[in-house]
Amino acid sequence: AQSVSQHNHHVILSEAASLELGCNYSYGGTVNLFWYVQYPGQHLQLLLKYFSGDPLVKGIKGFEAEFIKSKFSFNLRKPSVQWSDTAEYFCAVNARGGYNKLIFGAGTRLAVHP
Amino acid sequence: ETGVTQSPTHLIKTRGQQVTLRCSSQSGHNTVSWYQQALGQGPQFIFQYYREEENGRGNFPPRFSGLQFPNYSSELNVNALELDDSALYLCASSFDQAGANVLTFGAGSRLTVL
Q: What local confidence, expressed as pLDDT, does residue A97 receive?
């Protein structure tokens, strides 16, 4: 069965610290990969996506993620976090060529302290 | 462009009752998906509608049903409510049904079953 695992449920950082959120997926075929973010009181919104090509993808607000096919991973990174990055982050995957059924991880709640 | 709007935002039902949740898709989008997000978990795919037909379904029982209308808006109906149906129900729309299309999410309808 398809699944997505996010390693950290809660992360607490100080401003300017570096961030890496882990994401591993289990799926037997070719996938599209996504990171979504939910800021407090707001909708889920797309942070970045990977469909094909360069495995290092850049998203909004200075975030990036690297797809490592051999490790079934799609980790999210940011070199220097800000207080405004406080949010819940979800990794998601769907089958390339299939219909748009996203499988989400359980989410990582990030708190950034000034 | 208008985003995805959902109604109602909050509702309380008792076990055994039926509920209907509504969703207006983003302008230009023809595909609607529904997700259930229980507390502390990532969203789980319920089903997807494309051109008024259900074209994909997750692991949810038949008492979860839906409709899509000619204007691409959608309803989610849940019959014989159970306590475990308490969750945030998210509607998402996309330009097309394929997995390479980014989902735009609404704010959700929070259902409490007593």
A: 76
